[in-house]
Every structure is written in C-alpha cells, then in structure tokens.
Specification:
Helix content is 81%, strand content 0%. It is elongated, with a radius of gyration of 23 Å. The longest helix is centred in the C-terminal third of the chain and has 43 residues. It has one domain.
Length: 73
C-alpha cells in the first residue's frame, strides 16, 4: 500500500492483507461491513442535501427581506 501522497481510500485500507487478517480474526464479515458503510454514506448524502437545501432557502429569504427593506426604506 502506498499512501505517501494522499489519504488512503476505504477500499485500499480494506484490501490490505493485515486489515483482512484482523477482520477475519475478529469475525467481521466484509460484505456486512460494506453494506454498513454504504448505508452511512447514503445517510450522509441525505443530510448534506437537506443542509444545502436549507442554506439555499435561507439565502432566498434574506434576499427577499433585503429587497423589501430597500423598497420600504
């Protein structure tokens, strides 16, 4: 494994022979772990999308308030 110039990807770490041996010794099912990681990734994407949507709504609300203030002002 060569990680000198970047952070290791999850796939790289899980493909490492030592990591595989430790997982096997601990009774970790690689397919089950992969499923868990995919579920976490999907959850994080959902949270990010909601956050971006909320941020966009806030920007629109501020723009409307600013225009209203200018019109009244």
């Amino acid at each position: 494994m060569s990680w000198r110039h970047r952070e290791p990807r999850l796939e790289d770490m899980l493909a490492d022979s030592i990591v595989k041996a430790v997982m096997e010794a601990d009774g970790v099912d690689p397919r089950e772990l992969e499923t868990i990681f995919h579920q976490i990734a999907a959850h994080l994407r959902t949270i990010k999308a909601r956050s971006q949507s909320s941020e966009q709504s806030t920007k629109v609300e501020l723009a409307v308030k600013l225009q209203t203030a200018k019109a009244l002002g």
